[in-house]
Design a protein that fits this description.
single chain, 358 residues, alpha+beta, seven-stranded antiparallel β-sheet, 7 strands, 60% helix, elongated
C-alpha cells in the first residue's frame, strides 16, 4: 500500500465511520419512537422494545452503509482538499482518478464489515427480533424450527415459509392447518402447497384433506379451496422477516424451493440480486463522490458536502428502486437494473475525473 493510499485511508475511514454512526443513530431513534407506540400490547414493555431495537441495529448498519460511504468519502476527501493536500498530491504526480481509487480502497475495507453484518449477523438478529416481538405481543403466533405457527380460532396453521408482497398480501408456503372441535379433539388436517390471503379467507391450492373421526380417516385431494380465517394479515406481516432482510444463502434456498414446487419467487429473486450487487453499489457511490472534492467544494463547508453526499446517495437509491420496481412489474431484467446503474455511475465518474481540471 502506497503513501497515497495511507493518506486517503486516514482521511476517509474516520469520515465514513462518523457518517455511518450518525445515519444509523437517526434511523434507530426513529424506529424506537415508532416502536414505543406498541408498548402495552401483551407483555411488550420498554425493556423488550429496547431489546427489539438493539437486535435490528446490525441490519440498519448494513442498509445505511452505502449512504454513509458516499457522504463519508465526500467529507474525507473534502477535508484533504480544504488543506490543499489534494493539490499537493496532484503536484507530486497522482492523478485525480488514482486518488479516487484510493478512496474506494478505504470504503472497501469497511464494506467487509458491512457484509458480515448484512449476510450473517443481521438476518439472525432480525429473526430473533421477530421472535421476541411475536412472543411478547401475541399468544397466537410463534416461531420455531418448523416455521410459523398461527392460532386461528379453533384451528392452528403451520407454514414453513412466508412471503409478504405488500400491505395485506400474505402468502404461506407448505401449509398445514389443524382443525379442532369444541372438545379439543382434532377433526381435520389440511395440507396445501400454498395459501394466499384474500380478504377474510385463505385461498389454498394443491390440497390434501384428511378428515378424522372415531371410526375412520377419510383422505382426498383438491385443486383449490377457500378457508375463512380470523387472522389479521398485518399481524403476520409485522412478525415476518422480509426478503430484503434475509441473507443471500437463505434467499437462494427459498428460490430453489419455490422453483421445485412451481411457486412464485419474484420477491426473493429481486432481493437476491439486490444483495449480490450491493457491494458494487456502495463502491460506485463512494467513487462518485470523488469529483466533488476537486471542484467548488474545496471552498465549501461541511454542510455543503454533507447535503451533496446525501442527495447523491438518496437520489441514486430512489432512481434504482424505481427501475427495480419496473423490472418486477415486467418480471424481467432484474440483473440489468441492479448491475447497470452502478456501472454507469462508475463510467461517468471515471470520465469526469479524466477530464482536464478547470
Amino acid at each position: 500500500m502506497s503513501r497515497l493510499d495511507l493518506l486517503v485511508l486516514k482521511a476517509v475511514i474516520p469520515a465514513v465511520l462518523l457518517a455511518w454512526v450518525v445515519f444509523v443513530g437517526f434511523d434507530t431513534l426513529l424506529a424506537l419512537l415508532n416502536e414505543l407506540d406498541e408498548i402495552g400490547i401483551g407483555s411488550y414493555d420498554l425493556t423488550r422494545v429496547l431489546e427489539y431495537i438493539a437486535l435490528t441495529v446490525p441490519r440498519r448498519l448494513y442498509q445505511m452503509f452505502s449512504t454513509a460511504a458516499v457522504v463519508g468519502c465526500m467529507l474525507g476527501l473534502g477535508a484533504l482538499a480544504a488543506r490543499s493536500e489534494l493539490i499537493a498530491l496532484q503536484a507530486a504526480g497522482a492523478s485525480r482518478l488514482r486518488i479516487g481509487i484510493s478512496g474506494v480502497y478505504a470504503v472497501a475495507l469497511l464494506l467487509i464489515v458491512a457484509m458480515v453484518l448484512g449476510e450473517w449477523i443481521g438476518p439472525r438478529a432480525d429473526r430473533m427480533a421477530a421472535d421476541l416481538s411475536a412472543q411478547s405481543k401475541s399468544q397466537g403466533i410463534a416461531f420455531s424450527g418448523s416455521g410459523l405457527w398461527l392460532r386461528d380460532g379453533q384451528a392452528v396453521w403451520n407454514a414453513k415459509r412466508i412471503v409478504v408482497g405488500g400491505p395485506g398480501q400474505v402468502d404461506l408456503w407448505e401449509v398445514w392447518r389443524y382443525q379442532f372441535g369444541a372438545d379439543a379433539r382434532m377433526q381435520e388436517v389440511l395440507k396445501a402447497e400454498r395459501a394466499r390471503y384474500t380478504g377474510g379467507s385463505f385461498e389454498l391450492s394443491g390440497i390434501v384433506r384428511d378428515q378424522l373421526s372415531d371410526a375412520e380417516v377419510k383422505s382426498g385431494k383438491e385443486d383449490s379451496a377457500s378457508v375463512p380465517t380470523l387472522l389479521d394479515p398485518g399481524l403476520i406481516e409485522s412478525h415476518t422477516v422480509r426478503p430484503r432482510q434475509q441473507g443471500t444463502a437463505d434467499l437462494l434456498e427459498t428460490i430453489r424451493y419455490a422453483r421445485v414446487n412451481q411457486l412464485d419467487a419474484l420477491a426473493f429473486e429481486s432481493a437476491f440480486w439486490y444483495r449480490v450487487f450491493y457491494p458494487l453499489v456502495a463502491l460506485a457511490l463512494a467513487f462518485a463522490a470523488t469529483p466533488f472534492a476537486f471542484g467548488n467544494l474545496r471552498s465549501g463547508g461541511l454542510g455543503q458536502r454533507l447535503l451533496l453526499g446525501m442527495a447523491l446517495g438518496i437520489g441514486f437509491y430512489f432512481g434504482q428502486r424505481t427501475l427495480i420496481n419496473l423490472a418486477e412489474t415486467n418480471r424481467d431484467g432484474l440483473i440489468l437494473v441492479n448491475l447497470g446503474p452502478p456501472l454507469l455511475l462508475i463510467a461517468l465518474t471515471a470520465w469526469a475525473l479524466r477530464r482536464p481540471a478547470r
